[in-house]
Each structure stands twice: as C-alpha cells, then as structure tokens.
Write a structure and sequence with these properties.
alpha+beta, 2 domains, four-stranded antiparallel sheet, globular
C-alpha cells in the first residue's frame, strides 16, 4: 500500500510539473523576431529586407570597416526602428533602416 501511495504521489507531482512547464512560456518575455533591415546609399535602396549578417558584410565592404560593429548597429536598428548612417560613399550616406 505504501508503494501505491508513492506511485500516485509521484504521478501527481510529475503531472503538476509538466503542467507548470507548459504554462511558463506564456508568461515569458516576448522574443524579438525578424532581423531584417534595409540598406540605402543616398536615396536608393540597395538591399531590402535583408538579414543582418548579409547587411553587415555589404556595408562593411562599402564603408571599408569591420563587419562586427556594423552587425551591432544593424541589430540596434531592429530593436529601435531608428535608421543609422554608417558612413558616406562618394558623398552619399550609407544608411541601415528598417
């Protein structure tokens, strides 16, 4: 009889943990999705809805800078929604926007 009580108690505990585990994601903070940005040189869009990694490589090549800092700037654009001018090329601003 003692074994049966332990088995039932274990089942109830496991079911409660399972339910709590399923309910937890609903209370979690929302995940920022997307990561797609645009690149413009002057008033011409060069890339539209491009992944941050691609944007960072293209802008770094155009501006003659390292990829890492450009990727950070592009990530900030996805979070804030505000455009960022990385450099100028032939007198035109190279801008990352969303």
């Amino acid at each position: 009889m003692n074994i049966a009580k332990k088995a039932i108690a274990g089942g109830v505990l496991a079911g409660g943990l399972l339910f709590a585990g399923m309910a937890a994601p609903a209370n979690a903070a929302p995940v920022v999705q997307g990561g797609l940005v645009n690149v413009g040189i002057g008033d011409v869009n060069v890339l539209n809805n491009a992944h941050i990694g691609i944007v960072a490589q293209v802008v770094a090549q155009v501006c003659g800078v390292n990829v890492g800092p450009v990727a950070v700037l592009a990530t900030q654009v996805t979070h804030s929604g505000l455009p960022v001018t990385v450099c100028t090329s032939n007198g035109l601003p190279v801008t990352i926007s969303q």
